Write a sequence for this structure.
């Protein structure tokens, strides 16, 4: 009998179940259900997975409860794939309500953005998930590409068979390979409510969506409407295809809040089952809002910690993902009273979990209260961090802000002030991300243009250290266009020559614009979708980005997992790093300095040396510099020059410099690499 035809009479038996694992666990003969709840009564509803109609109802019997875990086992044909939901009666005085199992692992939905929106949890079959080996990539060798599953291929210009889906992304893997990317970081793919947005389009009045997905409904389940076919299988196929292409997969996970919102929000799952365990509450019993979303998950309660750890393990064991980026991870350091804990147990548990060993753990070390733990997040030598200070330093330096040169030097060296003893791979370096202006917009707008979000442009980051270079928005002025395009190349050149792990926002390599919108979370349209025609129209920047990634891969000195210092090494002709100015050994660290010159050197255990020189001039006028000498037996070769035509040569084959001087054009970055002299 099929799952959609299942009825009460079709079930052979309903009896006590096991208290673990939590959720619905299928085997050949039936399904075990285990649900933590402090409610006075709990029922299991079996549903038609297509229509959502109830086909069976069973009460969890009190005598089958183990602690606070309600258990039940159903034996019968066709249970794998059946839809199900929970009916909860919190107290005898309150009416029962229907909610989602927080451990639900796959859903059927009415389709992206449809109102009213119905989602039905289904029992996940025993078999499934991703198979095959994972790419083994050292963290310092990663090139992370942050993208959104739907936005990456939703535009008609993507020309894929299933736009906006996991399958659509699979079709674009060859592009990622050509670019040189070896890790994708996906914005939230766990089941969320895209219809949860109180704002409307000011132009036409249509309700806006929650496009990004930072409002989870079910932490364990791949977003059903991102699938062209079956979400479990299609997401597993995406991970497996990326792995075969040598590309790792990092998931952006949201454990700091849920789509239930504050006390006025819907009862979807956690609130009805055990609000006091899952959420931070004030003395009056109302949600504490440290996330600017209405509620705050209580991460260090044992019940919630177990949920989060079980969820991470599920994504690893079923889909073989390579790591996680934790949204507003500073929330995970807070205790039951909302205060920051000196040693939060969840952070330590995740860091030491054997199932998660070898997987990337990346913290966004901030939250909506203004708490900033960048450099001080409790890392346990496992956690890396999004380094927003790197972003700000690059932007301020390229705009020649006072005092920015010295800080840029520190960020170029891998932020040793923030990550002493941890190495540069603790720093995820980025100039742009989904949250803020794109790279093209950073060079085209002085202020945010978020009118389409319906919030009178009060939302989003107020000051992005951006510049329109003389005109707000698009322009045909050739002088402004030259500066904008050079600044885009400058930012990319610094990103890929800095120690740490570089992260590129999808579309920055092809000048993707959001029209100045720096908070496009609600824009499920061309504002957020990648226009693939720009890949062809801006082939020069795509080629330049690919070239920079190749240069980084060819030169270990640019991606070592150690902070360079100026101390001499025995037998080394040069120190690991030296700083220069218009003359060798004469850096200018003054507030008005516009010149940064760094020479990086490394020698491996076999005695093979590698050297690179990074020089940046942020002034409005050219400057001539006398170059420091390269290592003995080598000469300087041009790796990249943002003031010149984007190169097409392979790394190590660039033109040699004929003199020991070089003119740096205004607003430009130069990369030189050491090439061996020809033997006569």
């Amino acid at each position: 009998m099929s799952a959609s035809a299942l009825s009460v009479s079709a079930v052979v038996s309903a009896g006590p179940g096991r208290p673990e694992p939590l959720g619905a666990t299928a085997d050949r003969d039936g399904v075990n259900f285990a649900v933590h709840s402090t409610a006075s009564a709990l029922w299991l509803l079996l549903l038609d997975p297509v229509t959502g109609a109830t086909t069976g109802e069973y009460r969890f019997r009190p005598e089958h409860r183990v602690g606070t875990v309600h258990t039940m086992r159903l034996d019968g044909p066709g249970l794998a794939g059946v839809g199900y939901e929970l009916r909860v009666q919190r107290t005898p005085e309150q009416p029962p309500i229907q909610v989602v199992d927080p451990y639900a692992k796959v859903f059927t939905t009415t389709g992206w953005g449809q109102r009213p929106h119905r989602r039905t949890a289904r029992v996940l079959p025993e078999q499934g998930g991703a198979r095959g080996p994972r790419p083994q990539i050292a963290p310092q060798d990663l090139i992370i590409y942050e993208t959104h599953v739907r936005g990456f291929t939703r535009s008609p210009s993507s020309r894929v068979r299933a736009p906006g889906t996991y399958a659509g992304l699979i079709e674009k893997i060859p592009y990622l390979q050509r670019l040189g990317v070896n890790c994708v970081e996906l914005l939230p793919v766990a089941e969320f409510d895209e219809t949860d947005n109180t704002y409307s389009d000011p132009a036409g009045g249509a309700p806006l969506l929650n496009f990004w997905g930072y409002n989870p409904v079910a932490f364990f389940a791949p977003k059903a409407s991102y699938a062209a076919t079956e979400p479990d299988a299609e997401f597993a196929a995406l991970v497996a295809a990326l792995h075969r292409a040598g590309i790792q997969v990092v998931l952006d996970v949201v454990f700091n809040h849920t789509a239930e919102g504050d006390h006025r929000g819907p009862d979807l799952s956690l609130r009805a089952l055990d609000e006091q365990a899952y959420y931070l509450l004030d003395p009056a019993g109302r949600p504490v809002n440290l996330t600017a979303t209405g509620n705050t998950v209580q991460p260090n309660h044992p019940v919630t910690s177990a949920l989060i750890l079980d969820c991470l393990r599920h994504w690893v064991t079923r889909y073989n993902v390579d790591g996680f980026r934790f949204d507003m991870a500073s929330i995970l350091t807070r205790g039951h009273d909302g205060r920051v804990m000196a040693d939060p147990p969840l952070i330590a548990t995740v860091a030491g979990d054997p199932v998660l060993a070898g997987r990337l753990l990346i913290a966004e070390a901030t939250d909506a209260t203004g708490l900033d733990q960048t450099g001080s997040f409790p890392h346990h030598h496992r956690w890396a961090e999004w380094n927003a200070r790197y972003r700000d330093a690059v932007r301020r330096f390229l705009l020649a802000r006072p005092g920015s040169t010295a800080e840029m030097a520190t960020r170029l060296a891998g932020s040793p002030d923030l990550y002493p003893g941890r190495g540069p791979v603790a720093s995820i370096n980025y100039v742009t991300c989904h949250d803020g202006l794109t790279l093209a917009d950073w060079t085209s707008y002085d202020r945010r243009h978020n009118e389409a979000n319906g919030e009178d442009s009060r939302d989003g980051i107020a000051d992005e250290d951006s510049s329109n270079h003389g005109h707000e928005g698009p322009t045909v002025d050739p002088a402004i266009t030259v500066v904008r395009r050079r600044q885009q190349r400058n930012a990319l050149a610094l990103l890929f020559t800095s120690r740490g792990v570089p992260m590129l926002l999808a579309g920055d390599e092809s000048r993707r614009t959001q029209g100045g919108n720096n908070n496009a979370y609600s824009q499920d349209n061309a504002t957020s979708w990648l226009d693939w025609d720009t890949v062809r129209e801006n082939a020069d920047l795509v080629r330049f980005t690919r070239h920079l990634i190749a240069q980084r891969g060819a030169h270990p000195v640019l991606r070592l997992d150690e902070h360079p210092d100026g101390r001499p090494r025995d037998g080394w002709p040069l120190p690991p790093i030296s700083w220069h100015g218009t003359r060798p050994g004469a850096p200018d660290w003054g507030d008005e300095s516009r010149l940064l010159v760094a020479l990086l050197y490394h020698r491996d255990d076999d005695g093979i040396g590698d050297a690179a020189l990074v020089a940046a001039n942020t002034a409005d006028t050219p400057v001539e510099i006398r170059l420091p000498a390269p290592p003995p037996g080598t000469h300087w070769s041009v790796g990249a020059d943002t003031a010149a035509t984007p190169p097409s040569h392979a790394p190590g084959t660039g033109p040699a410099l004929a003199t020991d001087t070089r003119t740096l054009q205004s607003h430009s970055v130069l990369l030189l690499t050491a090439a061996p002299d020809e033997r006569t």
